Amino acid sequence: MQKKAFRNIFYFLTDLSFVLFILLATVHFWAFNESFYRSEHRKLKLYGTPLAEYIGISDEKLDELTSFTLEYLNDRDASLDLQMEIKGQMREVYSDDEKLHMVDVRTLNLTSVTVMYIAFAVVLLSSIYLQRHKELRAEKYHFERKFFRYLFLFFLVLGVWIAIDFDSFWNFFHHIFFAGNELWILDLRKDILIMIVPPEFFFHLVTVILVTFIAILAIYLVISYFFYRKGLKDDQHRII
């Protein structure tokens, strides 16, 4: 009984690490996909005005600013100090509050990268262990099915929440990950940072991340079932 409990903990940590790795990899793929930003920037409007025009720069300059900002998030030593001509005047792009908030965002991003690598290492080592202990294959598969059943239920509820009231979800996210300050509360009429990525942008980003993540998990489950069935047939042949 005790051995089974330890195995269940092992299965749980393996599945949780797999999910974390897929989720964070999906987040990073879309959150740093400059083609996605360009597509969104060309179609989004603020108060009825095209995004770049509302900010007061060209589409090309908006692309450059976006690249500069994304690069900052992956470089612990980078600075957000940048002068640009905006609405005909040379000025500092980001205010002190925006820069302080981006320090928090960069910390969160770099931490998530570390977690992603750790999760991948756990999955890799667990896979090697399970490959050497094929007698656990059936038990692991049945645990996995239960785990993903609850996981899909969780993300279904999350998806409904996002679809019905994205603002409350987004505020909750910030209260959890940026607890202790309100630097993330920006003004669409004066803060360039929130103009580049307005709430509608984040709604689209979160939606595409969620859809991609669930699709990958669904494909994984199909493949997992195929290999599970194949393993059963191989075991039967060995017995015969």
Task: Summarize the structure in short.
This protein is about 75% helix and about 5% strand. The two termini are about 30 Å apart.
SSE order and pairing:
Layout: H1 2-31, H2 34-43, E1 45-46, E2 49-50, H3 51-55, H4 59-73, E3 83-86, E4 89-92, H5 96-132, H6 137-164, H7 166-177, H8 192-196, H9 199-239
Antiparallel strand pairs: 1-2, 3-4
Descriptive overview:
With 240 residues, the chain is mainly alpha-helical. It has one domain. Helices cover 76% and strands 5% of the residues. It contains nine helices and four strands, in the order H-H-E-E-H-H-E-E-H-H-H-H-H. The protein has helices spanning 2-31, 34-43, 51-55, 59-73, 96-132, 137-164, 166-177, 192-196, 199-239; strands spanning 45-46, 49-50, 83-86, 89-92. It has a two-stranded antiparallel sheet with strand order 1-2. Strands 3-4 form a two-stranded antiparallel sheet. The longest helix is centred in the last third of the chain and has 41 residues, at 199-239. The radius of gyration is 23 Å and the shape is elongated. It starts with a helix and ends with a helix. Mean pLDDT is 91; it is low at 236-240.
